[in-house]
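quick q for whoever's on today - can somebody do inverse folding on this one?? i tried earlier but teh output was garbage lol. tokens:
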């Protein structure tokens, strides 16, 4: 009877954990900006002439918060920013680079990293895979910068589950890099598809598609974790 009681209690705890309100932060570029919702001094894209996203509640990150009861802690998104330190025209983007904004995310339950679009559009150097001991020269290239960024995110936000959002219609090397590097730092890649865009940026329908795909991926990840925990629980009870 005692075992059954403990089993029921643990299952209840797992269920509560899966359904509890979650906090999240965003590390992004123009796709995740909105005037007044990002830090002062950052460049924004939304709202913009030629794109029908006109209010903050139409953004993908506002939608996932409203639809799932999640709370946004920080939106650290900078329009035009690259993950590495090389931007458009070979310019030095060290100041706005994703990898140098990893300490501003407030250690939420979840972090959504939505980048790589400008690295692709700006033809930033791809570079070689490197997973430690990065130099400033290394970080001018995309592959080592992605690894360094994810390492810094984990170091600065040790309790956070990290999701990397992969935009559609980017250079193949961008997706290949995320798929290769992310698992090394316990990050999950969400590959977006069928995103309607205006001026190269998500429209209202595009934002809705992003929100739906992100929610689906997060829920699938949570379900997988719960199943694993229940299996471990059964194994423990069987041993006892």
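ok took a stab at it. sequence:
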């Amino acid at each position: 009877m005692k075992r059954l009681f403990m089993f029921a209690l643990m299952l209840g705890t797992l269920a509560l954990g899966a359904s509890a309100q979650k906090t999240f932060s965003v590390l992004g570029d123009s796709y995740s900006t909105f005037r007044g919702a990002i830090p002062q001094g950052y460049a924004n894209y939304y709202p913009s002439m030629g794109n029908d996203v006109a209010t903050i509640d139409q953004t993908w990150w506002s939608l996932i918060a409203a639809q799932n009861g999640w709370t946004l802690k920080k939106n650290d998104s900078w329009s035009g920013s690259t993950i590495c330190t090389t931007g458009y025209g070979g310019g030095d983007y060290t100041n706005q680079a994703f990898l140098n904004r990893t300490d501003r995310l407030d250690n939420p339950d979840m972090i959504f990293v939505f980048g790589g679009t400008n690295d692709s559009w700006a033809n930033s150097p791809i570079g070689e895979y490197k997973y430690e001991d990065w130099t400033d020269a290394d970080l001018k290239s995309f592959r080592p910068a992605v690894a360094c960024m994810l390492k810094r995110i984990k170091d600065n936000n040790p309790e956070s589950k990290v999701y990397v959002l992969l935009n559609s219609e980017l250079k193949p090397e961008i997706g290949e890099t995320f798929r290769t590097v992310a698992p090394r730092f316990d990050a999950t890649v969400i590959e977006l598809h069928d995103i309607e865009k205006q001026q190269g940026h998500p429209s209202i329908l595009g934002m809705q598609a992003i929100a739906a795909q992100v929610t689906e991926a997060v829920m699938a990840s949570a379900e997988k974790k719960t199943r694993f925990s229940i299996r471990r629980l059964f194994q423990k009870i069987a041993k006892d």
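fwiw Residues 50 and 76 are 24 Å apart (CA to CA). also Residues 4-19, 226-230 have pLDDT under 50 and may be disordered. so keep that in mind when u check it
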